[in-house]
């Protein structure tokens, strides 16, 4: 199916900071696409460009085939956007916020009544309809913001870190909600810094320094991961010299509880295990996950220490 | 522009105002407060000038002269002095502002070889009040002179030889020359200017500061719809402020409203659109509530207060400043309101000023609309 969201070679610089450096991706209807990356990778800038809030300095963005920055093209009616920052009116109640956005999209009274009732029901916010938005918990607030972005039934939904600051239960709720709308054919682009959430997306793009490092289905990406992952426990003064000596074979090191999670080139894995054991460390192999993939990829372009930070 | 979206923004903005009792209270209290403060305190009338008298002469003639000072509502005799040191101390202590000294030979000079000198001492440190007090004193002296001459003529049987020139003054529009009649209409203009710019200076900056603009920008609402929607509730609030000011002026200060109320409302409305748009423009440019408010206060209040002719007559200003007053919109509203209030004139006289106000409103509104970018950067 032809994509409804298309970013082609997006480039954007704020002062001395290069936020985007040739980012390209496309999303089809009914697809849940994840932009995965650390803070400052350029995810927010990319979503703001797609939402028409920023005009990119290089490249082009298309949403349902239109330029999102062109307010007169009617593109906004097809677009739902949920910013990362709190951006609803705190002094307005849940219902008043919904009604305001319904009016901005010129929904009829009946459409508003039906859709808000349904959205309030599935977000379980009915009981709080009269509560000011500023008095909602983080999870409830995000659900309200999502409801506000969904009222006009957009064909494309852009969510900037929707699960940031949300408890695990509400997080699950949010994902369940997204699946419902995606099943109805909506294209969803969601950004998140949480690697564990990547596996919930149909397709993900790994963003690093404003560029796409890797793109594909999360399971396939992890399955195709060629490096080994070791859990290393032991005194730092014993372990660190060994890892340093291994040099480029050690792709990434991340703390894991009291131990270290070490990503190592597959061929060098056996040798490193022996060296670590000799230094008195306990080593166990781990199943690679998305975070290892990300760290290994990010390390390709930057020192491992910076990527882990 | 889509009317439904304009109304949506207007309703939302009304809720903000309604939910924030502090700003609502301020919007309604500031006009009343300014009316009380300026209406009572900013009086230019000089009444009851405190006066010391030193009657060295102690004759029927000197007592007759002093009784005229005592009887005048412009003077209040506070001290019967017995020497210059006492008068000097009273002026230094600000117990009195002026002193009348009648020499010991007053009656003799008056009867034998007029004119008889009478000393009038005046504290000139407040030049304005001193000038007015001097005028009053001269008036008292003149009326004494005229009546004294008439009495002498009658006594000697010679036909009364009237003073060669008599000025018969009739004051129009403000018969009692009360300064409140002059201050209050101008004050309404100043209040409208300050309130209007203050009310809207917060609105758009607040959306930027609180991050709500990001969500707003992603919807189909256009910049003009946002501006129009935000203007509506504050326009209503501004008109309420106008009503409050007019009612206080009428019932508390008794300022006559001789002209057309419709014209008063129309010219204030035109002015209000300009003032509100100006606040909006500050809000758009500053993107910070604090900065926008400061801009609104600085740029509207001072010129409206100093250069509008509200207190200081434009005709008395140096030429370059007179020219500068033409870009102070409050100037036109001040003269419109004075014309309507005191002279009761209508469009036949005031059309030019009204047209300028309408042009000012349209220009600022246009500038705000042009300046507002529905983009994050």
Overall number of domains of chain A = 2
Tell me the quaternary state.
heterodimer
Using the coordinates above, name the CATH class of the largest domain in chain A. Alpha Beta
- Could you state the order of secondary-structure elements of chain B as H and E? HHEHEHEHEHHHHHHHHHH
Q: Taking strands numbered 1, 2, ... along the chain, how are they ordered across the largest sheet of chain B?
A: 2-1-3-4
> How confident is the prediction overall: mean pLDDT of chain B?
89
Unreliable spans of chain A are 302-309
The strand count of chain B comes to 4
Q: DSSP helix count of chain B? A: 15
Sketch the major β-sheet of chain A: 6 strands, mixed
- The N- and C-terminal alpha carbons of chain B lie at a distance of 23 Å
How far apart the termini of chain A lie comes to: 39 Å
Mean pLDDT of chain A: 89
Radius of gyration of chain B: 29 Å
